[in-house]
Amino acid sequence: MIGKAVKNYFVNLKYFFTPLGTLALGLILGLSVLIPGAKAALEILVSSVQTTLESAEIDVEHLEQSLVAAVRALDWSDPFGSIATMFGEEWLTDTLNNSILPFVENAEIYAEELLLSIEAFTLSLVALIIIAAVLVAIGFVAGFLLIKLFIRRDIAKRSFLKFLLMTLLDALLAGGMIALCTWIYSLSPYLLIAAIVIGLVLSGGISLLEAYLVHGRKKVAFKTVVNVKNVFRLYVGDLLVLLISVAFSALVSAAINVVAGALLGLIFVEIALIVVDLNAESYVNSLTPETTRMTMTHGE
User: Fold this and answer.
1) Where do the H-state alpha helices sit in the chain?
2) Mean pLDDT throughout 91-106?
3) How far is CA 223 from CA 181, 214, 216, in A?
4) pTM of the predicted protein model
5) What is the DSSP letter of 213?
6) Contact present, 2 and 233 (Cβ < 8 Å)
7) How many Å apart are CA 270 and CA 280, to the nearest integer?
């Protein structure tokens, strides 16, 4: 089971560019909304400032240069921290204040109106960023669902009816497991470790039970599939797959940069999570006779 889990991961890396493509598409759509929208909002801000300060000579190019300089001044050795700072309302407001007010005489007289204009621009930009982030998230989720469909088709195909029944069964068993572990912990805080261990064993057992019901019933002995040894092997295989995906992400970060490591690492981990989710089914499917598997795969 352990070797099969690792093999499943490496074999299904062939789908790497599918989620990468949907993620890139989501990013392109997000930027196609963000960039023109931000430029339009900036032009509205400049027009509003010029209306408030008839004598002020502030143009879009000036503001763009000021914003670019402020962005470059951020600490890009921590790219994710800098991005989070850059998209925060406080940073945007302070940056715009520093870009406009120093060039205006008696700025304090117009401060309230200027701040309202800056606040309106900031809110518009934050809304555009949220829309862009949602589009990127949709691209990521679409890629996840697509490759999960491909991987399931390859290693653990099942009918739609079985999918619905197993989804219901999974919800019931998982709910019961959570309730049991919560009850054990409620007896005493010192039983936390015991609750976690029991939860892990039951979780692995549930995965194997569901895999048996879908792929092994009347074909493989129940005890051959659902036993403590197989639960242990399932967790070891899953852990190895996750560690390999993290190692790949770290290698990309070291070879290129942290941003590339995070983006590409997301795909490595995404494939790993799908394989982990299907490893129990793949294992049980491998136990059935070849002719039975072929009949089941083509018949369902």
Assistant:
1) 2-11, 17-52, 60-72, 79-86, 89-100, 111-155, 160-187, 192-211, 222-225, 228-255, 258-287, 290-299
2) 67
3) 24, 15, 11
4) 0.68
5) I
6) yes
7) 17
